């Protein structure tokens, strides 16, 4: 399982990177991930698939979050804030 907050590639379900927001097991103990995707404005779907981590820069991460609804930013501050801090540090570090 990927850490919560990881950006992943799910080519069967999204044209954009998806974000892992939770891990859980279903009623027959199959591990699942709760994922958010752009096409649902950050709303969730579940997957048992082994997904690959998206190799994307901080600007792309911010662009994905920018396509999510405001509710996502409020509920998932634990995911959003570190990305915003990383973005700010990247911008401040440029000459």
Fill in the keyword field for this structure.
95 residues; alpha+beta; single chain; 3 helices; five-stranded antiparallel β-sheet; elongated
What does this structure look like?
This protein is of the alpha+beta class and 95 residues long. It has one domain (7-93). It has 3 helices and 5 strands; from the N terminus they run E-E-E-E-E-H-H-H. The protein has a 5-stranded antiparallel β-sheet, with no helix packed on it. Strand 3 and strand 4 (44-47) form a beta hairpin. Helix 1 (58-66) packs across helix 3 (77-93).
What coarse outline follows from CA principal-axis ratios? elongated
Helical stretch tally: 3
Taking all Cα atoms into account, the compactness measure Rg is: 14 Å
Average pLDDT score? 94
Q: What does the main sheet amount to?
A: 5 strands, antiparallel
**What order do the helices and strands follow?**
EEEEEHHH
Ends distance = 38 Å
Beta fraction of the residues? 15-25%
Which percent range fits the helix content?
25-40%
Structural class: alpha+beta
Quaternary state of this entry equals: single chain
> Can you list the strand order of the major beta sheet?
4-3-2-1-5
Uncertain spans, ≥5 residues at pLDDT below 50? none
Q: Quick one: how many beta strands? A: 5
The number of domains is 1
State the gist of this model.
Helix content is 34%, strand content 24%.
SSE topology:
Layout lengths: L6 E3 L8 E8 L5 E6 L7 E4 L4 E2 L4 H9 L3 H6 L1 H17 L2
Helix pairs in contact: 1-3
């Amino acid at each position: 399982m990927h850490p919560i907050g990881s950006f992943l590639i799910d080519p069967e379900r999204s044209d954009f990177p998806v974000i892992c927001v939770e891990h859980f097991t279903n009623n027959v103990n199959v591990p699942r991930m709760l994922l958010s995707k752009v096409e649902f404005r950050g709303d969730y779907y579940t997957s048992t698939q082994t997904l690959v981590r998206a190799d994307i820069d901080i600007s792309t991460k911010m662009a994905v979050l920018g396509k999510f609804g405001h509710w996502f930013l409020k509920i998932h501050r634990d995911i959003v804030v570190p990305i915003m801090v990383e973005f700010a540090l990247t911008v401040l570090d440029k000459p």
